[in-house]
Write a structure and sequence with these properties.
single chain; seven-stranded mixed sheet; four-stranded parallel sheet; 15 strands; globular
């Protein structure tokens, strides 16, 4: 990989103050060698340099929760108000697609990520397409293989199936693509299966992602054995969850799932004791404000997460929920929910996402030694500081994206 030097009107390292007329030097190994004011960053002979005099250079955005295999699978309508019905609809749509279609969907999704300045994803799915496509395209992310099984009698079969799938998909792991597991959600996974998957993941040092405390219906299922999901379980002859009266967060913790390797997705239906529990366990959160709003689930307690010291990243969820994913739009929504300043909101979309995925030593900020993942945006307005200008931007304002110094996206010139 060739070395590369990038300069811009502003460079935002995120972990350090903005640099006016700054530059970044990326070595042949894809790692950053220097960041600073343009005159102070070396210009090695033979290293190509590129200047973006009107643009802002930021770390590559980190999307902590995606479903890339659902890219382009449009219902043609907003999310179904009844969450149980909507979930069933997603399953029906997936059953009509084949392997090639899922692969095409992921490839399209990865390219859309790069076009929006996103360089790393935390993806969940059950088809195995995401890890294969990311590896083939030279992408970056943690891919969580889903497992389902709401009936306790399914534990052995579901766990064995997950273990086989992980073994099969392991060959697609690269230095930038890691495999994890995702016992899907409390309304699709029994307590015993959660405990079994968590124990196996700990033994294998696999990261875990779980959809958690997303909807009121989930809280009703675990808290009172009532509501739409409880009704569905009764119709299918599935025993209701044990330990009624628990919040979803407490219920998952009692099954040994919460820990430093655990990414909790959504966490809307959570109160102060839940936040304290998440903080004690060291779990992280993928916050998806636009998806939460689209489904009518409410607003997650983002300010509480941050006050508790919980690692929080932003996610776009699936295209079925939000249409065209835009992580900067998620950052704007998160900013409004928690009263954040522009720098803190941008940090959620970069270093925060890296921390949530436990990749902060490699990505999320522009620092020597980290991978040269960065995006270049041409802001629409000059008002406010550079972080404000970035947040006011849209995904179509991204003019270039680099992954480990490799150019993976370049906007078409105006009028081309």
């Amino acid at each position: 990989m060739p070395a590369r030097r990038l300069a811009a009107r502003w460079v935002l390292p995120v972990a350090a103050p903005p640099i006016e007329c700054g530059a970044v030097l990326i070595g042949r190994d894809g790692r950053i060698e220097a960041v600073g004011p343009d005159p102070l960053v070396p210009r090695p002979a033979g290293v190509p340099g590129e200047s973006f005099p009107d643009a802002i250079l930021i770390p590559g955005l980190v999307n902590a929760h995606t479903h890339l295999e659902l890219t382009g699978f449009d219902f043609g309508a907003p999310p179904e108000p009844d969450f149980r019905t909507w979930i069933a609809g997603v399953r029906r749509v997936k059953e009509t697609r084949n392997t090639d279609e899922f692969m095409d969907a992921v490839r399209t999704g990865v390219l859309e990520c790069w076009a929006g300045g996103v360089t790393t994803v935390g993806d969940t799915g059950d088809t195995g397409s995401a890890i294969r496509a990311l590896a083939e395209l030279g992408g970056s992310g943690v891919v969580y293989q889903e497992v389902f099984g709401p009936h306790p009698s399914q534990v052995g079969q579901s766990l064995a199936g997950l273990q086989r799938r992980v073994d099969e998909l392991g060959r697609w792991q690269t230095g930038r693509v890691r495999l994890g597991v995702s016992p899907h959600a409390p309304y699709t996974v029994s307590g015993p299966l959660y405990a079994a998957v968590a124990a196996w993941a700990e033994a294998e040092d696999l990261p875990i992602a779980v959809h958690l405390a997303e909807s009121p219906a989930e809280s009703e299922l675990l808290g009172r054995g009532a509501g739409p999901f409880a009704e569905a379980w009764r119709e299918r002859g599935i025993p209701l969850p044990t330990m009624p009266g628990c919040s979803p967060v407490e219920w998952l913790d009692r099954h040994g799932v919460l820990g430093e390797r655990t990414l909790c997705i959504h966490v809307v239906q959570a109160h102060q004791p839940d936040l304290e529990r998440l903080g004690r366990r060291g779990a992280s959160v993928a916050h998806c404000p636009l998806s939460n709003a689209a489904h009518g689930h409410g607003a997650a307690p983002l300010a509480g997460f941050l006050a508790q010291g919980i690692r929080v990243g932003l996610g776009t969820d699936s295209a079925l929920s939000v249409g065209s994913p835009d992580l900067l739009a998620e950052a704007r929504a998160a900013r409004g929910l928690a009263g954040l300043d522009a720098d803190a909101a941008l940090a959620l979309a970069t270093l925060g996402g890296a921390q949530a995925l436990r990749l902060e030593r490699e990505i999320g900020s522009l620092e020597p030694g980290k991978l040269g993942d960065c995006a270049v945006l041409l802001p629409r307005a000059s008002a406010g500081g550079p972080a404000e200008q970035v947040l006011d931007s849209r995904r179509e304002d991204v003019v270039a994206t680099f992954l480990g110094g490799r150019g993976v996206y370049r906007a078409e010139p105006v009028g081309a």
